[in-house]
Amino acid sequence: MVSRVNGLYIHIPFCSKVCDYCDFSVLSAPERMHGEFVDLLIKELNCLMKRYPGFRSDCETLYIGGGTPSLLSESLLLKIFSEIKNLGFSLSWKEATMELNPESCSKEKLNLARNFGVNRFSLGVQTFSKNLLNLVGRRHTPEMARQALSLLREMQSDGIQYSADLMFMLPNQTLENFISDLESLVGYSPDHISFYGLQVSPNTLLESRIRRGKLIVDETLYAPMYNTGVSLLKENGYERYEVSNFSKPGKESVHNLNYWCRGEYLGIGPGAHSYFEKVRFNAPTRYGNWKKWVLAGCPESLYEKDVLNRESEILEEIWLSLRLSKGLDLEHLKKKYDYDLVEEKMDYWVKKNYLQKKGNRISLIGNGWLMMDQVVSDLSP
Ligand code: SF4
């Protein structure tokens, strides 16, 4: 498993329509805004590369996410990729991923990205049920998802990897619906699958419909859906390496592992996060504020910043490592921070069969994955 590489994240903030449950930094904007955005993005990238000149040579992964990167036209995608190339990034990435949504996925865009070294795509399928897609306000249809999956599957023979996302705990979704979604997806043999329980975030359309009793999410289904999903994927050769991420052997996401292993990365685009030299920082999140900030030359003073001290680093090590199947290295914690977890607390969770201790490592097991927040918060200083 690869860890601690430098990564570049590019946030594309546009979606064809904002889904009813979405609380990300995204907007549905007319196409004429896309061009303006790309010019600003390129300015920001140039500012950052001047500020961190050594970054390019160490940068091993690229992740273009959002939002919906595939919504940009071919000419705008070409502009972004060309700038990355002109700035001197090596295009032989260890991993370069571009996110896609089915409604804007085309062979032309996939090939264009491949020509600039993109070797992995990530498709937002969410569910194959037309009703459920409508219910949560997704723009695409199951047929579009199937077409995109077939396109991606064809590319696998050329060494291109792909991942697909599903959601569970959707309103009105039954355990059978979710398992049938997973089985359908496994039928396309993606290299990597992520599945996430729906988060009902405040101030979203979905939350207001649930609050008014128009839709119901059955909380008791969380555990059976998650556990059955994990078993089904295991039977089909996908190992859980992170709480929501599963891959065929050796196909874990290198870029995302870098986040969980606290490696350094830079992010560009509205609200994109960076972690560099023990500082977490991000540019303004709202598009208008971000635009003003870029036009002002991306002043460092206006970053939202969090300078990590020893205690916050320990907390991050615990929270991020326990998301991973390989778990937390207690010896590393001791050596790097002179910190020991409380033995009695670890023993408590081990006795409950939520945690296992093997050599110097502790990791979640069984229903411990469902109790991750409680276990981790109990073990934290
Ligand atoms: S496609 Fe994803 S990012 Fe875009 S609105 Fe829907 S959930 Fe949000």
Structure overview:
The protein is α/β, with parallel strands linked by helices and 381 residues long. The protein is built from 15 helices and 15 strands. The strands form three sheets. A nine-stranded mixed β-sheet has the order 7-8-6-5-4-3-2-1-9, with helices on both faces. The chain has a three-stranded antiparallel β-sheet with strand order 10-11-12, with no helix packed on it. Helix 7 (175-186) links the parallel strand 5 (161-168) and strand 6. Helix 1 (31-51) packs parallel to helix 3, helix 3 (74-86) packs parallel to helix 4 and helix 7 (175-186) packs parallel to helix 9. The chain is globular, with a radius of gyration of 21 Å. The mean pLDDT is 96. Bound molecules: iron/sulfur cluster.
Defining traits:
381 residues; alpha/beta; TIM Barrel; Arc Repressor Mutant, subunit A; 2 domains; 9-stranded mixed sheet; 3-stranded antiparallel sheet; globular; binds iron/sulfur cluster
List the helices and strands and how they pair.
Elements: E1 6-12, H1 31-51, H2 55-58, E2 59-66, H3 74-86, E3 95-100, H4 107-115, E4 120-126, H5 130-135, H6 142-156, E5 161-168, H7 175-186, E6 192-197, H8 205-211, H9 222-235, E7 239-242, E8 245-247, H10 254-260, E9 265-268, E10 273-276, E11 279-282, H11 287-295, E12 304-307, H12 310-321, E13 328-329, H13 330-337, H14 343-351, E14 355-358, E15 361-364, H15 372-379
Parallel strand pairs: 1-2, 1-9, 2-3, 3-4, 4-5, 5-6
Antiparallel strand pairs: 6-8, 7-8, 10-11, 11-12, 13-15, 14-15
Helix pairs in contact: 1-3, 3-4, 7-9
This protein binds iron/sulfur cluster.
Iron/sulfur cluster (SF4) is lined by residues 15, 18-19, 22, 24, 26, 66-68, 101, 124.
